[in-house]
């Protein structure tokens, strides 16, 4: 069964609470203000504002696919990109390590961030009391390559990426689908989290975007997309490349063969159960199957929708609503300036025999 009312409630259950969005928005706004005002010191070291070309969000928040942590005690991250004019034509790029250490020094100059920062391979992390963190990525625009950027890599050098290009591509994949692709990604990110499946969000998002299918309901679009991806995975014994849609780098480079095989096999099982859930005509049995995939946050009972229901706000939006919501979220998180927008199986569930893949070995 399509269980449309339950899917509305499920979407509501796994979405970030407004109180959390508000706290993130406040933190991002404060960061934006600081970096736009951080000018050079008396010792001549440039401030962030002196070399700042752009400030924007990337990742789940920017694409409308953020889900709350499955464990309420877990932190969650927000990715902030700083495009910095640190090199000109003909100049060698500074080392990524040097840039990150400089960025950390500048951030630590803010009393609100002092003692809260740490340097990672690609970013400086600002931790907010175990609640969430901002990952501030230092990037250098790549000359003559549109929105492509150089970002630090794990070896202290640089690698090419294009977060704005990725976001545009994902928006095109979801065009005309009334937000169903965004919700499909959210549902499967939740499935990944509660079943402890190792796959990065950006890799999962790219795979689902490549296999996005239409459907009159969330359940139909979800299952069609899952079945398409499942067939593709079933023809690949070895870990595949997952190419960035605009720069071509392998976004799954650090995904191990064992992690890939676990994902492929678990995804196949989830796909078969989801198809059974959709085709099942008995409501109670269908719900039990959906809960086997998505756990206890998929509602067992039909939510009230009597006008006073707290679930009314979780109604599935139209495509226009999705655009409005995405725009509002970006404004909440990064402010109104143009530079910001330039962009656990359910208890009692049973293990079931899953059919083998008849297509394995197909071209």
Break the fold down into its secondary structure elements and pairings.
Blueprint (H helix, E strand, L loop, with lengths): L3 H11 L3 H20 L10 H4 E7 L1 H4 L12 E9 L11 H13 L8 E3 L3 E6 L3 E10 L7 E4 L5 E4 L1 H11 L6 H15 L6 H10 L7 H17 L22 H23 L3 H12 L24 H16 L3 H4 L22
Parallel strand pairs: 2-5
Antiparallel strand pairs: 1-2, 3-4, 4-5, 5-6, 6-7
Helix pairs in contact: 2-12, 7-8, 7-9, 9-10, 10-11
Which key features would you list for this structure?
alpha+beta; 2 domains; 7-stranded mixed sheet; disordered C terminus
Walkthrough of the structure:
The protein is an alpha+beta fold and 363 residues long. The chain has 2 domains: 18-162, Beta Polymerase, domain 2 (2-Layer Sandwich), CATH 3.30.460; 167-341, no CATH class. The protein is 44% helix and 12% strand. It has 13 helices and 7 strands. The protein has helices spanning 4-14, 18-37, 48-51, 60-63, 96-108, 163-173, 180-194, 201-210, 218-234, 257-279, 283-294, 319-334, 338-341, and strands at residues 52-58, 76-84, 117-119, 123-128, 132-141, 149-152, 158-161. Strands 1, 2, 3, 4, 5, 6 and 7 form a 7-stranded mixed β-sheet that branches. It is globular. 37% of the residues are buried. Mean pLDDT is 86; it is low at 307-315, 332-351 and 358-363.
